[in-house]
Design a protein that fits this description.
Number of strands: 6
Helix content: 25-40%
Radius of gyration: 24 Å
Strand order of the largest sheet: 1-6
Number of domains: 1
Strand content: 25-35%
Structural class: alpha+beta
Shape: rod-shaped
Distance between the termini: 40 Å
């Protein structure tokens, strides 16, 4: 009986550790692609050869 209790307690502590690590891990937002020159983005499309900028943000939970 003591062995089962010890294994159960170890599993609960391990699960809590996993949840704590996942909660503390920062996440990266979806990349946002914009044209450097707004004239290169016409009718919902980028013109051929357009220079673009990709921005992402790291969010802390």
């Amino acid at each position: 009986m003591n062995r089962r209790l010890l294994i159960g307690l170890a599993l609960v502590l391990l699960g809590g550790l996993v949840v704590a690590v996942l909660a503390a891990t920062p996440s990266v937002s979806t990349p946002v692609v914009t044209a450097v020159d707004p004239a290169d983005f016409v009718n919902g499309r980028f013109r051929k050869g357009a220079r673009i900028r990709v921005e992402t943000a790291i969010t802390d939970s």
